[in-house]
Amino acid sequence: MALSKIDLCNQALLKVGAETIASLDINQNDSEPVIQSAKLCNILFSQALEEVLRSYRWNSATKRVQLTQLSTTPSFKWKFQYQLPNDCIRVVNAYETTDAIDDGTTYVIEGKTLLTDYNTVFLLYIYNPEDLSVLDPLLRKCIIQNLAIKLSVPLQLDLKMQNNLIEEYNTTILPEARSVDTLENKYWDMEESNFITSRYNNSPII
Q: 106 Cβ partners below 8 Å, 6+ apart?
């Protein structure tokens, strides 16, 4: 079932026993509890979403792109700099070629740019989707829980509830989502080394 931003907010609100909302727009004709729910969801949703997205290499939030090299170069150390995508939440890896072999490519992230000595860069990254329905159901469950954690104190003034939600998130919800997400993959990056390449090429290490 595809869930919208409003749906995720309402599930988080239900977890903390707060009034649900029909819209994130503030309607002065609504009751004070509904207005408060909408205000706090507006403030906290993006933070809750981005924290969860950044916390792991989620399959359903992964993108690949060739980066655009900027005309200006770094003041020192690195030869080139590249603009990161606007929707980039976390860099997973950067490669020099489309073979995407993790050969120990060196780079640093500074602000919204990637600095490196490579003349071309292909990026694997976690993105912030406009359409939340593309996200895996267990990932959406993590977002709901993280939002509920943030809503629990300002809406209910209940630290015990918040602590219970945090424990449930860290011990059950997040581990399950990560485990299922990881097991769907049958390929993991492995940096090349003399040991690996010598065995692959059937040659001794020199």
A: 116, 117
Rounded to whole angstroms, the maximal C-alpha distance in the chain is: 77
For residue 54, give the H/E element and its range: helix 32-54
CB 139 within 8 A of CB 132: no
Nearest alpha carbon to residue 85 among 57, 60, 105, 66: 66
Give CA–CA dist 37/151, Å, rounded.
9
For residues 155 and 36, the answer to whether their CB atoms sit within 8 Å is yes
User: 4: which residues sit within 8 A by CB, 6+ positions away?
Assistant: 132, 133
pLDDT of 52 reads 98
- CA 184 to chain centroid: 17
Please return the burial class of 116, using the count of CB atoms within 10 Å of its CB with bins 0-12, 13-18 and 19+: buried
The CA distance from 189 to 206, in Å, is: 24
Distances (CA, A) of 94 to 58, 81, 125: 17, 13, 9
Torsion of Cα atoms, 189 then 195 then 197 then 198, to 10°: -160
pTM of model > 0.85: yes
Predicted confidence (pLDDT) per residue in 138-167, tens digit: 999 999 999 999 999 999 989 999 999 999
Task: Identify the DSSP state of 133.
Answer: G
Q: How many CB atoms lie within 10 A of CB 43?
A: 12
Please state the rounded mean pLDDT for residues 21-47.
94
